[in-house]
């Protein structure tokens, strides 16, 4: 879960990108992706962002395509689906090479892809691999000859150095970037970059990164305030000189001189008031930062304690439960509950790559359906609609999920009803297994809660409610998802979505 939170931080790195998208109308796939993202349907959003990237590239709208591919990769990164993300970026690099554009344009596009790879390796805490792609970004930036890309490179260098504890180098790079913008008096841009950097460090709970960034921000703020004050004083002196010249030209009228002096006094008072207000705002900002830092630390400590408690439940219960009479339903229910907690904890904390193998879909589905057919009663029918083709997936995890869904369907199907297990290919790399049964459909509230573990106090002899949360976590570990179809009104239909 922590990795998913950290991945949201790296989504904010897109702020610093200086490569602007072409001003054209968004295609339908991108609009669908943005709508799905607003509804927090991240798997669907990712699917449409990738389709949007493909459509843009087919129509030679390369910058928009890169933007959508990056957003799709961010959603892979959000769920730590590294292999799928790398596969997507490899396809983007190949697509760029296939285009007939200038070397500098290609380099600018490859730069964005290398930046996505560096972002993923930083998320994986693989410093050497991240450094290799940072060097690749520098080569692409030089070839592109684009000042905006070079400025963006400086920002990402600072991110890399600070993340891996190389604060001295990070300070040098960030100072160079801030100096460029400060020299051009783009103070608001520098201020926003510093605030973004501090926010990123705070959300990723990187205390040293936040402290270093905040110290640099304060030093820069002081220097800018000095520059601004000098400019204001210079402007004020020029105003005084201009007024004096005017007074001399008007033969030194005392009334005019007094009016000018009063005007300057008011201007100075307004300036002093503005400085006081600015100081108050800055003080409030510092106090809020301290309060937020303390709140974040307390929340993180609490979450860590809860996670440790849940993960240790099984180990604490098992020695005692094994001494009890397993023939009693209550004891067996507690043993099953302990085992399910351990399974769910292992799945949520697993970083291992899921092994894949080639599966014959029709034969696989029939094998899963056969034990269920032997339990059918009350004129209930079970139908399998699966083509004679193969699919590369993890047989064990998919079989566990479908077995659980079929058992649920058998339990809740109405008399003389039907159960259907079917497979549908939704795209070149998108597949679905669907399990449905006739009966009373779930309410919207039930659909929202059924995948949430520990949501209520239960009689464990009637089930612990962890079956579906475990199934969904298995689907997520394979790079897919498990959802309930809200459009199916004849009963309940579960959709297991997988990607190859």
List its salient traits:
alpha+beta; 17 helices; elongated; 500 residues; 5-stranded mixed β-sheet; two-stranded antiparallel ribbon; single chain
Describe this structure in words.
- By secondary structure, the protein is α+β, with helices and mostly antiparallel strands.
- 68% of the residues lie in helices and 9% in strands.
- It has a 5-stranded mixed beta sheet with strand order 2-4-5-7-6, with helices on one face. A two-stranded antiparallel sheet has the order 1-3.
- α7 packs antiparallel against α8 and α11 packs antiparallel against α12.
- 29% of the residues are buried.
Distance between the ends: 23 Å
Structural class by secondary-structure content: alpha+beta
Query: What percentage of amino acids are in beta strands?
Result: 5-15%
What's the count of strands? Answer: 7
Helix-strand pattern: HHHHHHHHHHHHHEHEEHEEHHEE
Return residue spans where pLDDT drops below 50 for at least 5 consecutive residues: 1-23
Query: What is the molecular shape?
Result: elongated
Instruction: Give me the number of helical elements.
Output: 17
**Strand order within the widest sheet?**
2-4-5-7-6
For the biggest sheet, the summary is: 5 strands, mixed
Task: Calculate the mean pLDDT score and round it.
Answer: 82
The Rg value, from CA coordinates, equals 31 Å
Oligomer: single chain
Helix content: 55-70%
Give a topology summary.
Layout: H1 2-11, H2 28-38, H3 42-58, H4 62-78, H5 82-97, H6 103-123, H7 127-144, H8 147-163, H9 167-183, H10 187-203, H11 207-249, H12 254-321, H13 329-349, E1 357-360, H14 361-373, E2 381-385, E3 390-393, H15 395-412, E4 418-425, E5 430-438, H16 444-449, H17 467-477, E6 481-484, E7 491-499
Parallel strand pairs: 2-4
Antiparallel strand pairs: 1-3, 4-5, 5-7, 6-7
């Amino acid at each position: 879960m922590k990795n998913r939170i950290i991945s949201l931080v790296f989504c904010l790195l897109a702020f610093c990108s200086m490569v602007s998208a072409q001003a054209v109308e968004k295609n339908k796939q991108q609009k669908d992706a943005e709508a799905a993202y607003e509804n927090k349907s991240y798997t669907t959003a990712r699917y449409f962002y990738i389709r949007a990237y493909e459509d843009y590239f087919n129509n030679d709208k390369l910058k928009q395509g890169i933007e959508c591919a990056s957003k799709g990769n961010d959603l892979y990164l959000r769920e730590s689906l590294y292999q799928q993300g790398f596969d997507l970026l490899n396809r983007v690099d190949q697509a760029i090479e296939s285009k007939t554009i200038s070397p500098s344009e290609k380099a600018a596009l490859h730069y964005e892809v290398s930046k996505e790879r560096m972002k993923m390796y930083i998320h994986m805490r693989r410093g050497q691999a991240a450094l290799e792609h940072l060097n690749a970004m520098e080569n692409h930036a030089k070839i592109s000859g684009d000042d905006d890309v070079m400025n963006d490179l400086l920002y990402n260098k600072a991110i890399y150095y600070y993340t891996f504890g190389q604060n001295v180098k990070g300070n040098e790079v960030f100072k160079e970037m801030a100096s460029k913008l400060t020299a051009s008096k783009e103070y608001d841009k520098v201020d926003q970059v510093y605030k973004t950097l501090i926010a990123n460090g705070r959300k990723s709970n990187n205390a040293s990164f936040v402290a270093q960034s905040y110290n640099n921000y304060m030093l820069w703020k002081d220097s800018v305030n000095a520059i601004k004050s000098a400019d204001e004083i210079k402007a004020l002196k020029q105003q005084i000189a201009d007024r004096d010249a005017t007074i001399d030209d008007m033969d030194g009228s005392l009334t005019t001189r007094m009016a000018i002096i009063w005007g300057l006094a008011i201007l100075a008072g307004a300036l002093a008031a503005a400085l006081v207000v600015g100081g108050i705002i800055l003080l409030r900002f510092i106090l809020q930062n301290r309060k937020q830092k303390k709140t974040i630390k307390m929340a993180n400590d609490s979450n860590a304690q809860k996670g440790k408690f849940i993960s240790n439940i099984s180990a604490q219960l098992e020695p005692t439960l094994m001494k009890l009479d397993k023939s009693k339903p209550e004891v067996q229910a507690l043993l099953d509950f302990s085992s399910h907690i351990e399974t769910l904890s292992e799945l949520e904390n697993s970083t291992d790559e899921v092994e894949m193998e080639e599966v014959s879909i029709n034969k696989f589905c029939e094998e899963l359906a056969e034990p269920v057919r032997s339990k059918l009663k009350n004129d209930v029918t079970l139908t399998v609609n699966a083509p004679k083709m193969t699919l590369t997936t993890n047989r064990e995890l998919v079989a566990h999920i479908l077995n659980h869904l079929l058992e649920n369907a058998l339990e809740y199907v109405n008399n003389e009803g039907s159960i259907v297990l079917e497979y549908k290919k939704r795209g070149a790399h998108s597949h679905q297994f669907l399990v449905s049964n006739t009966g009373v459909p779930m309410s919207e509230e039930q659909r929202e809660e059924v995948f949430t573990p520990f949501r209520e106090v239960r009689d464990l002899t009637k089930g612990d409610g962890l079956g579906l949360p475990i199934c969904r976590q298995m689907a997520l570990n394979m790079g897919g998802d498990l959802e309930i179809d809200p459009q199916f009104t004849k009963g309940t239909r579960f959709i297991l979505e997988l990607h190859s």
